[in-house]
Amino acid sequence: MTTKGNTTTAAPSDETALANWDEELARQAAVAAEQEASTGGDYFSLRGGQLKLHGLNLPDNQMAVIILDFIKVNAFYDGPFDAETPQTPLCYALGRDEKTLAPHEQAERPQHEGCAKCPHNQWGSLVVNNVARRGKECRNLRRLLLIPGGSLTGGEHQAPATTDQILQAPMAYLSVPPTSVKIFSTYVTTLNARKLPPRAVYTKVRLLPDTKTVYKLEFTPLGPVPRELIGAMMQRAQEAEALIAHPVPMRNADAGGAPAAAGGGKAAPKGPAKKRKY
Domain 42-75+139-243, what architecture? Predict the structure, then answer.
């Protein structure tokens, strides 16, 4: 501090430090506001075996994406789960470590202190029409947060060419159903053998019919994200990490936390068709 006459003023270094803090606080405020506004977000729909976003069918039931992040989701309903009539789970858990998963603080009616020992999360707990099945009452899913990874035309992959295409790409969520979780886990393990996380790879996600499970998701690598785009991708991945664990946002929601109006739950509002991003 310096004194001039009867006036005390901050030294230039102090003024610079205060200005820097103001700038940092403003930046954090903007991030917090964006995070709150983004809670929920858009979800892809898999209903009827058709991959959709905003009520629009994706060509050939497939898309090229970058999987920025993913977490585990457990969801328990107070009645039979119906994919065609989505609802908020009575109890749900979000996290990365299966051993420490526990009911979310905003869950309507927590069923147990932890998912590992919850009776609804044990094999053989599923009962359909009074008949015990091999599965679980609690649905074990994966919540993925994606951005477009280029286009697929005639089976050919056209990858993003600039950092702006990565930085400005819209995010959307995909809830991987229990019947496709093992497929996704195998995909992640396969990439790990190549020392690549999912976010470092362009992935083709395809929804296919299946005789046992009605439909299933398929994950296929399309090639690594080039080094010149890694910085932009990592910036988006940091955004994704801050957003992906949002709580179930409303009463009428998909199993993975999707608002019914996002990803095909309700009819898309009338008006000009949105340009397809995926």
Answer: Beta Barrel (2.40)
Distance between CA atoms of residues 84 and 235, nearest Å:
36
Q: Where are the domains of the chain?
A: 42-75+139-243
pLDDT per position as a tens digit, 103-114: 999 999 999 999
Q: Can you tell me which residue has the tokens 């949105």?
A: 274
Parallel, antiparallel or unpaired: strands 139-148 and 127-128: unpaired
Quick: pLDDT tens for 136-185: 999 999 999 999 999 998 879 999 999 999 999 999 999 999 999 999 99
Q: What three-state secondary structure class fits 215? A: strand
Distance, first Cα to last Cα, the chain: 56
pTM as predicted? 0.76
User: Residue 218 and residue 173: Cα distance in Å, rounded?
Assistant: 16
**What are the residue ranges of helices labelled H in 91-159?**
none
